[in-house]
Amino acid sequence: MKKVLISYYSRTGNTEKMANLIQEGVSSVDDIDVIVKKLSDTTLDDLDDADGIILGSPTYFGVMAAEVKQFIDTSVKRFGRLEGKVGGAFSSSGNLAGGNETTIQSILQAWLVHGMVVQGSWKGHHYGPVSVGAPDDGAREECLRYGKIVGNLVKRLG
Questions:
Q1: pLDDT given for residue 97 in this prediction
Q2: What is the pTM of this model?
């Protein structure tokens, strides 16, 4: 069975809520096992074990949280071993135009440098789900849809 890891850093709980919604979306895909972990509980071995990795961060000053950046910097120890895995990202912020897209793009950029496969979307949130504050109904739907998109891509590439 293929495995998707959803790892997140959340100070206020909004990014955590998004992670759980994305988990629901991934779980709707047959034959995919999904694990949700706080970033502080995520190890580099977890990256090795996953076929898909979705990383979530709040947006601080238009970029990912320092804790997320530190984890990505540490992932260089797995350089070359993540190639071909599916990558994804999501973010929450305190206000509209708070930098959610730039946060997601910076995470996706790291996944691309690792040689991972990233799928965008032609509708809705193009790079990955975003939320301003706690996920509202629109963000909830985007998270569920995104989880399903990533789960299906992992399945197709498997």
A1: 87
A2: 0.97
